[in-house]
Design a protein that fits this description.
By secondary structure, this protein is of the alpha/beta class. Helix content is 31%, strand content 20%. The chain contains 13 helices and 15 strands. It is globular, with a radius of gyration of 22 Å.
């Protein structure tokens, strides 16, 4: 689900906003210290609000590839890659590197994980690979095109026969073109409603490197042409939310898949489970940076406890944008301080199957009845034993009851409510803007 560029912009802004908000031409440069502090804090908060408004409708992929920038280091060459399209996550554009971890989670199904980096924040990003009955491979949401990733995929079977883009979200589709180039004989399947931004109507060859072989329908039970793998991997497509993107009414889709042999439900952003312990791919330096109580504090010692603190704050920032206990220090200009209570808010969020706050309040709030019908189709058709999301923890050993329970709020948003103050400063204003914009379009 996710508004990738929105999340990236907000997380990036979190890093710089309180360090660069007191420029000389702002009124917070006043010679009166008390007035300056008050004005600077208000300016910072207003700037953050303005950023929310400016990026609330941005959710897709940019088009024109730019020349790559080079980096020189001694990192493993197999972990390097070139990002051809500009994004707001690392490296924005050009060359970078990512480590890939592969795990087999059941017979003939593997997950390959990398880290998605947004400033000092990191979240796991996952591709799922299934070996079909003919020995070929089905690749869901390919990740960064490193030699390491390609080789780890190819170790799983004979050859890649199918590449699947399961959603509109940028981080799950941007590397499909590289995968198509590597596995040029593979069929390319996408969820409905793929679009480009800011230039609409770009050809498949520009966005994906080839003409899409097939667009997934509402379900593998729908009439019409279905993929050859649809008996082994069934699917149900959700129309998640509708937005005004670039002046065009655009519906955002996500397709969920069920691997019959392993009884695995594969989703992208619909549900997630944030673990209590840091992901092994997270950079220790970033965890320690985020762990600081105040941005003015020195770097803490590298201990398991400090890494865990950084992990918990990292999860709150990614989930809520501006969480409750992350405050501008009233006594120190340009300094952000964490107040007591953030750990309790992390515990309310982590360790259980949830619909991520961004998805819940931005996408599913628009038409909860439509989402509920999709949930009913998923739980009525498939007796899954594990869930494999594209972010955070996987696999999650959960079945139909746990999955349906995660969506209880669709009938009443007060059920399983998340901390109101965590929502108030980030997700709630964005959600209100999005829903208001949609309502005005309908008038």
């Amino acid at each position: 689900m996710r508004f990738t560029l929105l999340v990236s912009a907000l997380c990036f802004f979190h890093v710089i906003s309180f360090q660069h908000n007191c420029l000389p031409n702002h009124r917070c440069s006043s010679t009166s210290l008390d007035a300056s502090q008050r004005d600077c804090t208000q300016h910072a908060l207003q700037t953050r609000r303005n950023l929310i408004r400016s990026v609330a409708s941005v959710a897709a992929t940019t088009l024109a590839p730019l020349p790559s920038y080079s980096v020189t280091n001694n990192d493993d060459e197999r972990q390097k890659y070139t990002q051809q399209f500009p994004t707001l996550f690392d490296p924005i554009i050009g060359q970078s590197q990512r480590k890939t971890i592969k795990r087999q989670i059941a017979p003939n199904i593997w997950v390959l994980e990398q880290s998605l980096i947004l400033g000092p924040l990191e979240t796991p990003l996952r591709s799922t690979v299934i070996k079909l009955s003919d020995g070929t491979l089905w690749v869901h949401a390919p990740v960064a095109p490193t030699q390491e990733f390609f080789e780890l995929v190819e170790e799983c079977g004979d050859t890649v026969s199918n590449i699947v883009v399961p959603t509109y979200a940028l981080e799950h589709k941007i590397f499909a073109k590289d995968a198509v180039k590597r596995w040029s004989n593979a069929n390319l399947w996408t969820s409905p409603g793929q679009f480009s931004f800011p230039f609409r109507g770009a050809s498949d060859t520009v966005v994906f490197g080839k003409i899409v072989d097939g667009v997934l329908q509402q379900s593998d039970t729908s009439e019409g042409v279905q993929p050859s793998w649809s008996q082994e991997i069934q699917y149900e497509t959700l129309a998640a939310g509708t937005f005004d993107i670039g002046g065009i009414t655009t519906t955002l889709y996500e397709t969920a898949f069920y691997h019959v042999q392993s009884k695995s439900l594969i989703v992208t952003d619909a549900v997630a489970q944030i673990p209590a312990e840091p992901n092994p791919l997270n950079t220790p330096e970033n965890l320690l940076l985020v762990s600081k109580r105040s941005t003015s504090d020195p770097m803490p010692d590298d201990t398991p406890q400090n890494r865990r603190i950084g992990w918990e704050k990292n999860a709150l920032l990614i989930s809520y944008f501006f969480p409750e206990h992350e405050e501008p220090d009233p006594n120190k200009l340009g300094v952000v301080t964490w107040t007591d209570g953030w750990h309790e808010n992390f515990e309310a969020l982590a360790g259980r199957l949830i619909v991520p706050p961004v998805v819940r309040y931005l996408l599913y709030a628009q038409n909860p009845q439509r989402v509920e019908r999709w949930v009913d189709r998923v739980v009525s058709r498939w007796d899954f034993e594990r869930i494999v999301p594209a972010h955070w923890e996987a696999p999650i050993m959960a079945g139909r009851n746990e999955f349906k329970s995660a969506f209880r709020f669709l009938g009443d948003d007060k059920i399983d409510a998340l901390p109101s103050e965590d929502l108030r400063r980030g997700l709630k204003p964005i959600s209100d803007i999005a829903l208001k914009t949609l309502a005005s379009m309908d008038e």
